[in-house]
Batch of 2 targets.
Target 1
Amino acid sequence: MTRVLLTGFAPFEGETVNPSWQAVRAAAAEPPPGIEASAVELPCVYGASVAVLRAAIDEARPEIVLCVGQAGGRPDITVERVALNVDDARIPDATGAEPVDEPVVPGGPAAYFSTLPIKACVAAVRAAGLPASVSNTAGTFVCNHVFYGLAHLIATELTGVRGGFVHVPYAPEQVTDRAQPSLPVEAVARALREITATAARTRTDLRIAGGATH
């Protein structure tokens, strides 16, 4: 059995739900064969989110960590390639903090790459009939903050752990009053199961295009 820790976020910016947590909870409740999954909800807060993540890692002792966040406006499941060492908030976090051009980890590297097979994960989600793509930016809000925090922990302390980040679209109930793409939480949970199963069995990523032209 491969131990996998999945994380999602609490609602933010006035929303009453966050599909990342809804989908993570569902995926962990019915993991794919060979996966022992646990799930934790992270606060949408700079600093505290990484502290909660670290505590969950210490408790679960996972081999793989998959952090998941909401990316409202994106139409598909996006598997992130790179985490940047910068917090640059367009909106406040849940405590009102709004850092601008601050490092996630002072003195840390400018960026880290995901240690998961991102292109194989995208291919698996697409093979399951769901939309997915590689993303080359995780933003500069709390999602990127957690992704970088996780990557830094892996690089400096948790060398036996692999990890990465996935962004998911709005849930349908979030877009009833606005023209934005969405995916049912059940579909997102299915995609996360495909990603965790693929990450568990794949060490060498597919060598296929997954870049952007702009």
Target 2
Amino acid sequence: MSQMLERLQQEKVVAIFRYIEDQYADRAAEALISGGITLMEITMNTEGAAGMINRWRDKYGDQAGIGAGTVLDLDMAKEAVAAGSQFLISPNLDESVVEYGYSNGVPVWPGVMTPTEIVRAWKAGAEAVKIFPMGTLGWKYLSEIRAPLDKIPMLATGGVDLDNIADYFKAGACAVGMGSKLVNLDWVRSGRFDLLTERARQFADAAKAL
């Protein structure tokens, strides 16, 4: 088990930063860290993503785990790793990305949906997989596929909120990915970083309680 997977299973929540403007990024990250969420994914379709990853790695050191999301192909994977990404997450399964991460010591948690995709990702070298889109599939789907595939750690992304987070963990998720429910860009752009910290604390406490 990689250090980053161990951290994922301990902390249980990954904050997803998508389309955040660079001018707000650092304060938003610090607001989440203050609230107890320290695993953060910057999606590669966010303008300046590689620069933010590089800066956050330098700025926060061991205080936070910084990864890249929406890593669709090998070129994106190389760019993210060069920037210092500690893990790669994608909405899709590209075995070349998994193999590249494995050979460079960077965990890749690819996006999968079906049992066939899950096993393919695992055989390609993925230590964990991202079940997506959970907002549509729901925690009951996760529970069903976990029954025969219980040895493969699964990160549930999409549809998770404070009122159902316990259901996802009871269904077998090792962690959850949180986008707009956690990184609320309206709060960010209006300077309400206190609200971000409070929301982060709520999710961090809910995860710890499980």
